[in-house]
Amino acid sequence: MTALSVNLNKIALLRNSREGNYPNVVEHAQLCIDQGADGITVHPRPDQRHIRPSDVRQLAALVSPIPDVEFNIEGNPFAPAMADYPGFVELVEETQPDQCTLVPDGDDQLTSDHGFYLTSSAEQLAPVIQRLQKQGMRVSLFMDPDLEQIKLASQIGADRIELYTGPYAAAWGTDQLQAIFEQHLAAAELATELGMGVNAGHDLNLDNLTKFASIPDLLEVSIGHAFTVDSLAMGMANAVQAYRELLA
Ligand code: PXP
Questions:
Q1: Is residue 103 within 6 Å of ligand 1 at its C-beta?
Q2: What torsion, rounded to 10 degrees, do the Cα atoms 226, 232, 234, 240 define?
Q3: Which residue from 146, 161, 168, 239 lies 20 to 30 Å from 114 (Cα-Cα)?
Q4: 95-127 burial, b for 16+ CB within 10 Å, e for fewer?
């Protein structure tokens, strides 16, 4: 079964719209875990627009001791320290997640919208991957379904890739869908053949997930935005159940 990692960024975004700690991100993580979520994902950014360093520390304390529940931190490894944000790699090293997903995002992006172009960034990225792996973390790279780039991900030692599924989701209901799905399928097959695990994420939802999860050996999906919207309508416990049922 493909693992479900619930991304809690949007709970933090709601919390940040007021003073105080409501909704409480850690309590929502606990609720998801109680309902059978396989992991918790957060994406801290230097501008702290949603997840703050304090959330990452508290979630690490909650999730890390629980066997078989994965803590995944995603973000730009080159994001520098800013005010009380210690820098991405520094925060990851302090909190030691099970998996670190490296993403080439910038503060000017509303959300992650492309994978790594390793032709130009492999040299800079390789030492970061090794540094985190030496500390026992699994390192995944956020990638477009581009076969040449996926070969480079393997060459610089990535344990996994996370396929960026935004274009797949955007093609839902159009005649482009099958071609885009097949690109992702080919990318996943190549990654598996090269010995990397395959994760996926972005804009996955209860409509488009089943088809994507038919990709053999898809190890994990991380889902936040649609999951949060579904939680408003059906309650978060039911939303975890609904996503898990589709992945089963
Ligand atoms: N993967 C990455 C790298 C992301 O940045 C995000 C959004 O934070 C997701 C997955 C989850 O995307 P969504 O919130 O659309 O489910």
A1: yes
A2: 50
A3: 239
A4: bebbbbbbbbbeeeeeebeebbebeebbeebbe
Span 11-66, pLDDT tens digits:
999 999 999 999 999 999 999 999 999 999 999 999 999 999 999 999 999 999 99
Q: Which atom of ligand 1 has the smallest separation from the CA of 202?
A: 12
Q: Which residue has the tokens 């159009």?
A: 174
201 lines ligand 1 (CB under 6 A): yes
Relative to the CA of 205, which ligand 1 atom is closest?
16
Q: How far is the CA of 81 from the centre of ligand 1 (A)?
A: 22
Burial class from Cβ neighbours inside 10 Å (0-12, 13-18, 19+) for residue 18 reads: exposed
What is the per-residue pLDDT for 79? 87
- Pocket flag, ligand 1, residue 224 (CB < 6 Å): yes
* Residue pair 51/16 in contact by the 8 Å Cβ criterion: no
Please say whether the beta carbons of 3 and 244 come within 8 A. no
Tokens (6 digits) for 130: 């090794």
Tokens read off for 68? 């078989």
Domains and CATH numbers, the chain: 3-135+203-247 (3.20.20.70)
> Hey, how many other C-beta atoms are within 10 angstroms of the C-beta on 6?
29
The 10s digit of each residue's pLDDT in 133-154 is 999 999 999 999 999 999 999 9
